[in-house]
Amino acid sequence: MTEYRRRNTLRYVGYDYTNAGAYFVTLRAHRGLRVFGEVVNGVMVLNPLGRIADQCWTEFAARHTDAQVDIHVIMPNHAHVLLWIMDTGSAEPGAVSKTRKFGDAIAGSLSSLVGAYKSAVTQQAAHRGLIPEPPLWQRNFHDHIVRGEQELERIREYIRQNPARWRC
Predict the structure, then answer these.
(1) Residue 92: is it exposed, middle or buried by C-beta count within 10 angstroms (0-12/13-18/19+)?
(2) CB 26 within 8 A of CB 78
(3) Does the global pTM surpass 0.70?
(4) Is the dihedral of CA 6, 105, 32, 68 positive or negative?
(5) 104, 123, 125, 145 — which has fewest CB within 10 A?
(6) How many whole angstroms separate alpha carbon 162 and alpha carbon 76?
């Protein structure tokens, strides 16, 4: 008998991640390797791969009209982004509007948007010969559903100050 190991999810069980709102997302480089640059005197200095990662967030809204990047930062071994999923008016607020089988992607969901970003960075980096082979990213990502204006401002400040707080 073959034993299958279920992969744990970091997502909030029962929550519809296509809901409009703000999400604080952290993506880590594979094995936590410092591949995007370095922090020098509290300032993030991006290398060519880090510049691609940064540019992909900058161009994100042009490719994904259902999402907007509020603020982001690329760090030596991870990236933070405050990502807004926009209300498209297709479902009632708070209603779980889409169902799926395990493994199926839902267009416009947080997972599909983060996956699109990771894919864009990986493809551009591989095309320019900046990574020998994938994976560039850790398989999963951490998210936090932002609940309120005060929390939103606290997260923005955290992202802005992240390079200054970096410890080798």
Answers:
(1) exposed
(2) yes
(3) yes
(4) negative
(5) 104
(6) 11
Kindly tell me if the per-residue pLDDT of 4 is higher than 60.
no
Asked if 66 and 112 count as a contact pair (C-beta separation under 8 A), the reply is no
Per residue in 88-125, pLDDT (tens digit) is 665 544 444 455 555 566 888 999 999 999 999 999 99
d(Cα 104, Cα 111) in Å, to the nearest integer?
Answer: 11
Q: Is 153 helix (H, G, I), strand (E, B) or coil?
A: helix
Q: What is the DSSP string of 30-72?
A: GGG---SEEEETTEEEE-HHHHHHHHHHHTHHHH-TTEEEEEE
Cα gap 108→31, rounded to integer Å: 28
Q: Distance between CA 23 and CA 82 in Å, rounded? A: 6
Cis status, amide bond into 135, omega within 30 of 0: yes
| Nearest Cα residue to 84 out of 166, 8, 23 | 23
